[in-house]
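One example given next:
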Amino acid sequence: MPPIYRKSKLLRRSRVIWGSFNLWRPRLVFWTGALAIGVISVGFAKLADLAQRTFTGVTHSGEWTWLLPLVLTPLGFVLSAYLATTLFPNSQGSGIPQAIAARHLHHDEDRTKLLSLRLAFGKIVLTILGLLSGASIGREGPTVQVGASFMLAVARFGGMAQAKGLILAGSAAGIAAAFNTPLAGIVFAIEEMSRTYESRANGLVLTAVILSGLAALGLSGSYNYFGTADAAPTMFRDWIVMLICGVGGGALGATFSGLALYAGIRIRRWAQPQPLKRMLILAGLCGLVVAAVGVLSGGQTFGTGYEQARGAVEGHAPPLLFFVEKLLASFLSMISGIPGGIFAPSLAVGAGFGSTVGTLVGGSIALAAILGMAGYFAGVVQAPMTAFVIILEMTGDHQAVIPIMAVSMIGYVTSRLLSREPLYHGLSRVFIAAAIRARRAMEKEGGEEHPAH
């Protein structure tokens, strides 16, 4: 065989191999990113649990240590708000509004200000700091911003151009891995993140959820977030509980989200002359009140509220007014400007509300707690399908499928009648508006620097 022929044949073969690698490289990078989100979510969960246990241990280690939150919590809030403002801007709050806003932006630089590896790192660190300070926050919402940030970064490295679909996939993977609820991750992506069905993105979402879920499953094993419940309506009083949890939970959720949106507008206007100084003052005051509520409640309102919610699902009702105290602590933690989510605290508020209704009516505490979670959560986020699926997957209560579904829908309808704008989408408008203003200012400066001839 002539040398020239052999050389051309080897060249063609190398081109085929290289072309095949270029074809598979984006997929391999995407799959690696999805697996990494699962690993990061598990690590984040373990660190968050450790932070909460550390705070509880420190504040219950001696005769007078229960007063420590009055010092530790305000200081922690101020430090977290300062770091979020100076080192990790746009890390404040849940993180879900940032992911929603990023999907509406058209420039990659604007998205990077809301979703980046730097922000993901800051989000994890500051959420853990908040839990270490006793804030009434959760890690699930932040996991959405972390997942979306990580997916967008690795996909950029892999040469994938579907930014909106990748943000959707990273967000869904984050929820799925955080709660161990793969179906809820998919429903959340469709119903809450996009508000529309995008057939081109469904493959990305499904693949990301499967891979992140497999990674989380391999590290944490198979489990239900709140254990396995077996509650079903057996008496007429249980159906009364269902109606009250739907209407009452939806109204309570609408009140929370409506006040949060209104307070956000007022706080931004109030902080304008000296934003850093005034936001730190606000964080300190919110932290002080959160600490006071926590001390008065015997430490029940500090942290995510997971233990109280799980206890209610297992039939052990928390104090009758626990849901009011937890709602107040969660609201103040949210408006303080520190990073942290509202998923877990909302489930705790809902479980507390439901168990109170069940106690007063005389129905099943476990069923009432589950229905309370469904009604309140659907009222807060105005996403009934997500509420139904996530609570069903977290409790494994398949005997109450219809009641949970009905309460989720009643809570959603009640909330929509009282508050027209969904919470996360209302909050996302702030980030979208800020990005548009920054883009216009930059374009205006560019126009002035380079006037047309």
Summary: The mean pLDDT is 83. Residues 166 and 211 are 14 Å apart (CA to CA).
